[in-house]
Design goal:
Blueprint (H helix, E strand, L loop, with lengths): L13 E7 L5 E4 L2 E4 L7 E6 L7 E14 L2 E13 H7 L4 E6 L8 E9 H10 L2 H23 L1 H7 L2 H5 L16 H25 L14 H33 L5 H28 L5 H29 L4 H24 L1
């Protein structure tokens, strides 16, 4: 007697996963909905179709925002807001056109929806997302190779930049002769190295902290090649800012009547940048080892970096005070023009 075996396919295990809706964002412009490409806007729109999304809609913002569904106000709040998609489907006609308005702009917004993916699709998704890890590893190898080259060719100057004791020392007599040659080719290469180092740390923070900063949306990456392009572009901007700061210091020292302060002040500024970025990089490694994935931790890195720069201004002031025989208000005016105001402008760009 022939036996027939019936094979019943087992349903695949469904795994909940947060899907970022930012690639689907739109803005309303000239009577039409157009794809969002980092334009200046206070409102963004996106579709939610029942066939594609299940679970919950998550909206994160550090500013007050309003959620509209099919042109009706649903909620007005700030922080982390979760709304059931099933509840929205029961109360509104589908598909759902969601709009989020914030008077502070949309750069700080994050929107996610919970999808139920089969385990095989989740594995494939994780494999595709490894491009940023690949970029980080390759970029780190390049930076380590560059640092090793500096150590072999100019060990004294390289270690001088990483000397913590000299950063906090108010006596500059023991500075090397290279300090006075801030525009030499070797120093320019170190400024360039610092630019690439800082750019890499910022890209990691932007990637893992989400859209909490205005600049983070300007440097989003979706492939390894694009990551390298963004890295080079951000490094060029940082290097240009370094050169602008050096030029600005030269102008201010001439206006305020300071002599021989450009070299040691800018040298200490670059030293502070390199040491600060090294500390932030160490924290990133710790986060990776302990598998820290919360956005708040990587957002905190930017605040730590800002705090270090503020501390650097105080160190610069005491260094100037011990070096220059000028009145307090004269020194403070110079410090405002050379350090405080540029830092406030930079923080304004980062956080708002």
């Amino acid at each position: 007697m022939a036996t027939t075996t019936w094979c019943h396919s087992q349903p695949e295990n469904q795994v909940p996963v947060l899907k970022d809706l930012q690639p689907q964002w739109m803005i309303y412009q000239d009577g039409n909905y157009r794809p969002y490409h980092n334009q200046s806007s206070k409102s963004i729109y996106f579709w939610i179709k029942p066939a594609n999304h299940q679970g919950k809609l998550h909206i994160l913002s550090r500013h007050l925002f309003s959620l509209y569904v099919n042109n009706q106000l649903v909620i007005q709040k700030k922080g982390d807001v979760t709304v059931s998609v099933d509840s929205l489907i029961r109360n509104f006609a589908t598909p759902l056109l969601c709009g989020v308005y914030s008077d502070a702009g949309v750069h700080h917004l994050q929107t996610f929806v919970t999808d139920q993916l089969p385990e095989r699709d989740l594995t494939l998704l994780k494999r595709k997302d490894s491009y940023f890890l690949d970029f980080t590893i390759i970029a780190t190898i390049i930076l380590v190779a560059g640092f090793a080259t500096f150590i072999r060719t100019n060990p004294a100057l390289t270690l001088d930049y990483l000397n913590v004791n000299k950063l906090f020392s108010f006596q500059d007599k023991d500075e090397s002769k290279f300090t006075l040659r801030i525009a030499s080719s070797v120093n320019l290469l170190i400024y360039l190295f610092g630019s690439f180092f800082l750019a890499l740390i910022l890209l990691i923070a932007f990637r893992l902290a989400g859209n909490q900063f205005w600049l983070s949306q300007r440097f989003q990456v979706y492939s390894t090649a694009q990551a390298f392009g963004q890295w080079f572009w951000l490094s060029f901007i940082i290097f240009l800012l370094f050169i602008l700061k050096l030029t600005w210091l030269a102008i201010l020292t001439s206006l305020f009547g300071f002599r021989d302060t450009v070299s040691f002040q800018f040298f200490n500024f670059i030293r502070m940048v390199l040491l600060a970025v090294s500390a932030i990089a160490f924290l990133c490694i710790l986060f990776y080892v302990f598998k820290v994935q919360q956005n708040n931790y990587f957002e905190m890195l930017i605040y730590i970096l800002s705090g270090i720069f503020v501390a650097g201004i105080l160190i610069t002031y005491f260094k100037l005070l011990s070096r220059m025989p000028f009145h307090f208000f004269h020194l403070f005016s110079y410090l405002c023009a050379s350090e405080i105001i540029p830092l406030l402008v930079l923080m304004k760009v980062f956080f708002y």
